[in-house]
Amino acid sequence: MLELITAGESHGAGILCVLSGFPAGFEIDLEAVCAELTRRQNCAGRSSRKDLEKNAVEVLSGMRQGRTIGSPITIFIRNADSTIDKRKPNPVPRPGHAELPGMIRYGTKDATDIAERASARETAGRVAGGAICSQLLAELGVHVFGCTIAIGSEWAEAFEIPESAIALEELRALRNSNPYYAVQATGQWDRILSGAEKEGDTVGGVFGVISVGAPPGLGRPVQWTGNLDGRIARSLMSIQAVKAVEFGAGAAGIELTGSEYHGNIEMNAEGEPAHTTRTHGGILGGMTDGTPITVRCAVKPIPTTGRDMTSVNLETGEAVKRKTERHDICAVPAASVIGEHVLAFELCRATLERFGASSVDELRERIASVD
Ligand SMILES: Cc1cc2nc3c(=O)[nH]c(=O)nc-3n(C[C@H](O)[C@H](O)[C@H](O)COP(=O)(O)O)c2cc1C
Predict the structure, then answer these.
(1) Class of domain 3-370
(2) How buried is 84 (Cβ within 10 angstroms: 0-12 exposed, 13-18 middle, 19+ buried)?
(3) Is this prediction's pTM over 0.85?
(4) Residue ranges per domain, the chain?
(5) Separation of CA 328 and ligand 1 centre (Å)
(6) Mutate which of 37, 92, 97, 337 for ligand 1 pocket (most atoms within 8 A of beta carbon)
(7) Which of 33, 300, 338, 367 qualifies as a cystine partner to 123, CB 3.0-4.6 A?
(8) What is the pLDDT of residues 163-174, one digit of tens each?
(9) What is the pLDDT of residue 269?
């Protein structure tokens, strides 16, 4: 089974990603992996914290002469400067962060112990591992994509769901032309971000992830734990600050009647039976149905703000002001990059589970045999 774990702290030596169960014989484009880390780092909404992040990857295991060999792939992304041991104890948890429940859970009065691991810096590891999965999927004709849809409550113009790799690549070119990673950024977003920054505040928003080319039947629906929509939702929800995940029409689907929502099944251009609507988001009964997978994720505003935050000193029990610290203004563009590769990991895992292969050649043969 494909597994991805991460290790490392925000101001520690760096972030490690271990991708285990990846097939042998795949040539990883490490520059492309670094480019995805840079995309995660250099976008609208980020603070100067990103300057600490170096996007060079060191491969510690799992590859020989540029190709995977079937053993766990370990990637190390070194931080520019490790200050974790120099950071002063901080007994005051930030409202809305992981610090208060973490301090209770781990029996510490030092919020830094918790914040170091809860930080979204961890997701550099998920982007690195997921980017490797994205590359394998692309070779198999499955393409993943993430973009910003709303900053605050200001939505970008809706776009048509891409039905082919070519249509998806057109969206990718548009998305890569702006720092919000939106297919069409609105002129309002600069104003919203600079306004929030001026007010010492932060904003949330919505990002979307899409995949085209996934074959029908990925997912293991005979047991609820194997349902692919559940697995994708869990992984996306585990991204820091993501608070809602919806497929296809999502919650807005309640406005439709059954016949509007479900549409029909008809023979498509390839001569295959397929649904005519996209409301279900590409997954039915926990399995891909061959139509594009479309998911939206709502991201809450960043917990650390420049405003006075009232909290409690856990050493003394006193009500105090928690001092602010360097923070992002909006996580949505960066989260769209993380979400894209989180989706890639889940689709890669489901593909390997469905076709079970130890090498890329074997995987290609098995996929071809059911085509
Ligand atoms: C890309 C990204 C960047 C983030 N940057 C910050 C930040 O600068 N300051 C902060 O307090 N929280 C930041 N967060 C959010 C916190 O990590 C997150 O809210 C916290 O760990 C609690 O987890 P939860 O919101 O998932 O419950 C960021 C999240 C993401 C996805």
Answers:
(1) alpha beta
(2) middle
(3) yes
(4) 3-370
(5) 8
(6) 97
(7) 338
(8) 999 999 999 999
(9) 85
